[in-house]
Amino acid sequence: MRHFNIRSSFGITIAAIATLSLSTSAPAAAEEICPASSTRCWYLIFGVGDAPKRRLYLADFLVRKPEPSITQIDMVDIPEQDGDGADHYVYTMDFKCDQKQMRRNRAYRMFANGKIETQPMSDWVPVLPSVFQRAYELACDPKVRNNPSRNSMVLTGNMFRPIDVADLTRQLLWKTNSKSSQRL
Amino acid sequence: MVKRVLIMMSLTSSILFAPLTLPAYASNLPAFDAQQATEMLTSGGASVRGRAYVISKRGLLNQEKTYAKSRIISLFPMTPYLQAWYDRYKNDIFAGRFELNPATSTYSARVLADDEGRFQFRGLKPGRYLLFTEIPFTTTVRIRQDTGRTRSTVQVFSDWSAEVTTEPIYRSRKVKRDFTGMVHRIVEIKQDGTTVDLGEFDN
Question: Which domain holds residue A70?
Answer without folding.
Answer: 3-174
